[in-house]
Amino acid sequence: MWWTRRRRNVLGAALALVALAPLTACGDDAAEQTVANTYGTLEPGVLKVAVQPYMPYTAVRGEDLVGIDSEILQTVAKKLGLRLEPQVTDFSGMLGNVQARRVDISIGGIAWSKERQAQGLFTDPPYYSPPAMAVHGDQSYSTVKDLAGLPLGTVTGYVWVKSIQAIPGAKLHAYPDANGVFNDLSAGRIKVGFLDPLLIIYTQQKRPDMKFSTRYLAAPTDAEVKENASYEYLRPYMTSFYIPKQEPGLEQAVSKEIRQMYANGEMAALVKKYGGDSAQFLKPSPWMAGQRRGVDRPADWQPPTM
User: Fold this and answer.
1) Which range has the worst mean pLDDT, 70-74, 97-101, 273-277?
2) How many CB atoms lie within 10 A of CB 99?
3) What CA–CA distance (Å, rounded) separates 230 from 26?
4) E strands, the chain, where?
């Protein structure tokens, strides 16, 4: 927080010299405040961040943010001269706090969608998310047709809710967090869980006793998506950081730094650190540019790529 120092003037010959010090100090503070306020954050110099405990994407340990999204944002914030102030919530809270402008940004595997962008701003994608599934036992499902009639799970508010509801005969099981998905998956109460790919890999490594495997779904074709728009999120999708509509300067600054991290190899190094394949996570699918052009990006926008 920026504090303006106030000092009492003294009488006599020293008056001008003493008065100069507070004027100079106030001028410096005002200049710093003006720079910080160019990003439109709630508090100058501070970036209030909403996250949920969702490793390996985000978590708070002590006062520090950890996980791949956290490390990306830490790199960006350092370059912008902003101090991070994390707030822990659930996924619905991450979205709602941005839309109500209680925080400056939410991070952690958030998928871009038309509905969400209508209520907030999305940065350029820090990475892309391939369509991974956590599958009970050693079952092998590879297409949307394979999932028909099955009990399928995901987290309330995630983009896969609508996708699951659109699969013929599928029974949606929605949970407040990923732990509920994994627990019911391990117990066989659901057959497939739709979650973010790095989380599935991370949990499988940490909990081999849970008896599930990682599978990748063959992306629905353009024709299938045209027939049923809810299948869009059964294909690779764009993740983004989510920012209030009142802070366009922040969105532009963060997007610029994200692109720089692609260019200098920092993004590829972080993806590798967390078990991802850069070819899958840092290369956009052909249809992605068209999703955002004319919606929240100009007609010539190109997604960042390695």
Assistant:
1) 273-277
2) 16
3) 55
4) 46-51, 59-61, 64-66, 83-88, 105-106, 121-122, 128-129, 132-136, 151-155, 171-175, 192-194, 212-216, 237-238, 242-243
**CATH tag, 131-234:** 3.40.190.10
CATH code for the structural domain at 46-128+239-292: 3.40.190.10
CA-to-CA distance for 205 and 183, rounded, in angstroms?
15
Task: Give SS3 for 80.
Answer: helix
Please check whether residue 255 is in contact with residue 121, taking contact to mean a CB–CB distance below 8 angstroms.
no
How far apart CA 127 and CA 276 sit, in angstroms, is 10
The pLDDT score that the predictor gives to residue 268 is 98
Question: Left if phi > 0, otherwise alpha if psi is -120 to 50, otherwise beta: which for 95?
Answer: alpha
**Mapping DSSP to helix (H, G, I), strand (E, B) and coil, where does residue 288 land?**
helix
Residue 250 backbone dihedrals phi, psi, to 5 degrees: -65, -45
Q: Minimum mean pLDDT among 32-36, 87-91, 177-181, 293-297: which range?
A: 32-36
| Residue 126: Cβ-neighbour burial (10 angstroms; 0-12, 13-18, 19+) | buried
Start-end of CATH 3.40.190.10 domains in the chain: 46-128+239-292, 131-234
CB 39, CB 95: distance < 8 Å = no
Query: Which H/E stretch holds residue 280?
Result: helix 278-281
pTM of the full structure: 0.77
pLDDT digits (tens, 9 = 90+) for 207-238: 989 989 889 899 999 999 999 999 988 999 99
